[in-house]
């Protein structure tokens, strides 16, 4: 637990030192989403109908933007290798790094989501559900994304590869996330979608760190 | 003659049935030919390298301790 | 010479225990013996399959002649899944037992799987147009196959993305296994999503009670596809093993040349 907290604290400190990156992700999220009205027209009903999908897709892309930084700096300066040969469990270290990544991307995105909800006329009774799906779903994006980030360490055109690996695996999160908000908009209970979203997250909580740690071991071997 | 034309027309669905079969054949044959060509190319290249390598074998074996 | 195995992985860790058939040299011997049988059996099955699909099998009373597309579409979709399952097993044995053969096989099989997945999508579109009136509908099954296709493409891109081919195969193996865990979830989520959004008017393709006059050509075709895959897998796995050998030989030649 101590190592977990130590790595978490270190990664958070590093991320906060470069808080420009953090702001970029949130700005990207809001900017990209606000392009949609120019593409599909300003009809409020249409935008309200599309809001859950737009928020979720842009959140997914924003998370993608920041995945490379989970491991890359540590890989390049050799600290990842030190972490690997140290006696602490690499899975735990990876989980700490994923947590740090979520705290600096998923969480800010969730707090920025109400702005988009207003811009897109999302019915106010659906807003809590939207925030709840982001709160449950974005950790899964970080967990899956970390696997992609670790796999592409040392790869040629690694940054371009990550989306190719990660996006198909994120389809369930997208479906259950938007499904819950859609249900809330039309006045149906959203529990089923939320439960499934949580189940996917719980599974990836096991698979993600194990696979990412395996990939890190390969990368620094 | 009419029978053949009727057959080729596939009950009006010729534009859908034939491309499917054509694509299947093209992809399968293309994949086979490409794979086979790569294997033949590699086989000849490895044979050439081995021929180049074999005179050196004895020397390399004796000096392999120092070079490693 | 006894060093007919792929030498690149061995250079890193010379002492590794191999399962019996995972020895690349033994694989090549067995594969060379099996290959001609596989090849001619595939030729016969595909010949009979194509002939019956085009000339013997009856037209469907609802779908008319378009039902003939089923004989190339359904086996391709089966192969898309079957090959991925094979790759997942090979990936697991690469990561657990470090069989270099398993890595070569997974790398060799991925483009074949992608090709069959592409064929399933292509023929699905050409079957969908007359049946649904659109080249593409977001049908649950087509959508799942599309995502499988993306996963194949990711695998192919990753395996080739490293200067060290050994690392590429291992990274791709991790990806393949993560994909294997995810695919059932993706399939379920897409089905779930589809039932929520499906307009009632869409008529479902396939899975009617298949008459036996349609079933046996389909099965022969599927066996033909399977044998064809076996032939291609043998050829391509041998190529991967040879490529590894070529790399180590040319490295050695370079080394020896520099030493002179």
Write the layout of secondary structure elements.
The complex is a heterotrimer of chains A (221), B (68) and C (260).
Chain A: H1 2-17, H2 19-33, H3 36-40, H4 44-66, H5 72-76, H6 79-85, H7 90-104, H8 106-119, H9 127-151, H10 158-166, H11 171-185, H12 191-220
Helix pairs in contact in A: 1-7, 2-4, 2-8, 4-8, 4-9, 4-11, 7-9, 7-12, 8-9, 9-10, 9-11, 9-12, 11-12
Chain B: H1 2-9, H2 14-67
Chain C: H1 7-12, H2 24-56, H3 70-97, H4 100-132, H5 140-159, H6 165-197, H7 212-259
Helix pairs in contact in C: 2-7, 3-4, 3-5, 3-6, 3-7, 4-5, 4-6, 4-7, 5-6
Quick overview:
The complex is a heterotrimer of chains A (221), B (68) and C (260). Chain B has 68 residues and is mostly helical. Helix content of chain B is 91%, strand content 0%.
Describe this structure in words.
The complex is a heterotrimer of chains A (221), B (68) and C (260). With 221 residues, chain A is mainly alpha-helical. Chain A has one domain (2-220). Chain A has 12 helices and no strands. Chain B is mainly alpha-helical and 68 residues long. Helices cover 91% and strands 0% of the residues of chain B. Chain B is rod-shaped. Chain B starts with a helix and ends with a helix. Chain C is mainly α and 260 residues long. Chain C has one domain (24-197, 218-246). Helices cover 77% and strands 0% of the residues of chain C. Chain C contains 7 helices and no strands. Chain C has helices at residues 7-12, 24-56, 70-97, 100-132, 140-159, 165-197, 212-259. The chains are: A mainly alpha (221), B mainly alpha (68), C mainly alpha (260). The A-C interface holds A 147, 151-152, 154-158, 161, 164-165, 167-169, 171-172, 175-176, 179, 182, 196, 200, 203, 207, 211, 214-215, 218-219, 221 and C 95, 147, 150-151, 153-154, 157-158, 161-163, 167, 170-171, 174-175, 177-179, 181-182, 185-186, 188-190, 192-193, 196.
């Amino acid at each position: 637990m101590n190592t977990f907290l130590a790595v978490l604290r270190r990664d958070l400190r590093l991320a906060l030192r470069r808080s420009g990156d953090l702001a970029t992700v949130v700005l990207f999220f809001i900017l990209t989403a606000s392009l949609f009205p120019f593409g599909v027209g300003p009809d409020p009903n249409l935008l309200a109908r599309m809001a859950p999908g737009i928020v979720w897709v842009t959140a997914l892309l924003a998370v993608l933007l920041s995945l490379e930084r989970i491991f890359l700096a540590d890989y390049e300066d050799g600290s990842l290798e030190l972490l690997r040969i140290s006696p602490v469990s690499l899975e735990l270290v990876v989980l700490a790094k994923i947590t740090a990544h979520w705290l600096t991307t998923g969480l800010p995105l969730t707090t920025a989501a109400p702005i988009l909800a207003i811009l897109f006329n999302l019915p106010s009774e659906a807003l809590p559900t939207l925030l709840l799906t982001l709160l449950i779903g974005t950790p899964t994006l970080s967990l899956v994304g970390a696997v992609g980030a670790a796999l592409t360490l040392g790869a040629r055109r690694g940054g371009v590869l990550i989306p190719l690996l990660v996006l198909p695996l994120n389809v369930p999160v997208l479906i259950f996330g938007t499904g819950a908000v859609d249900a809330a908009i039309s006045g149906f209970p959203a529990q089923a979608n939320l439960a499934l979203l949580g189940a996917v997250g719980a599974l990836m909580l096991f698979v993600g760190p194990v696979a990412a740690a395996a990939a890190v071991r390969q990368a620094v071997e | 003659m009419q029978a053949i034309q009727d057959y080729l027309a596939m009950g009006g669905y010729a534009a859908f049935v034939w491309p499917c079969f054509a694509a299947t054949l093209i992809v399968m044959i293309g994949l086979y030919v490409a794979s086979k060509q790569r294997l033949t190319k590699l086989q000849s290249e490895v044979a050439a390298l081995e021929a180049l390598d074999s005179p050196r074998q004895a020397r390399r074996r004796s000096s392999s301790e120092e070079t490693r | 010479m006894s060093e007919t195995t792929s030498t690149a992985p061995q250079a890193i860790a010379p002492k590794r225990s191999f399962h019996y058939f995972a020895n690349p040299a033994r694989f090549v011997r067995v594969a060379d013996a099996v290959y001609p049988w596989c090849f001619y059996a595939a030729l016969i099955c595909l010949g009979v399959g194509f002939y019956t699909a085009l000339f013997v099998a009856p037209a469907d009373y609802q779908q008319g002649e378009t039902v003939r597309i089923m004989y190339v579409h359904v086996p391709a979709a089966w192969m898309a899944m079957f090959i991925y399952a094979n790759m997942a097993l090979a990936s697991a044995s690469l990561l657990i037992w470090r069989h270099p053969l398993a890595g070569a096989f997974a790398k060799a099989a991925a483009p074949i799987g992608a090709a069959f997945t592409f064929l399933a999508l292509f023929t699905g579109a050409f079957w969908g147009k007359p049946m649904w009136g659109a080249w593409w509908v977001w049908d649950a099954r087509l959508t799942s196959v599309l995502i499988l296709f993306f996963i194949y493409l990711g695998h192919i891109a990753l395996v080739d993305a490293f200067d060290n081919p050994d690392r590429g195969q291992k990274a791709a193996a991790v990806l393949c296994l993560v994909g294997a865990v995810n695919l059932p979830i993706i399939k379920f989520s897409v089905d779930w999503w589809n039932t929520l959004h499906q307009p009632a008017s869409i008529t479902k393709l396939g899975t009617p009670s298949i008459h036996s006059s349609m079933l046996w050509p389909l099965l022969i075709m599927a066996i033909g596809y399977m044998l064809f895959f076996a032939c291609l897998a043998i050829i391509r796995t041998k190529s991967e093993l040879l490529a590894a050998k070529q790399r180590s030989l040319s490295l050695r030649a370079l080394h020896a040349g520099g030493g002179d």
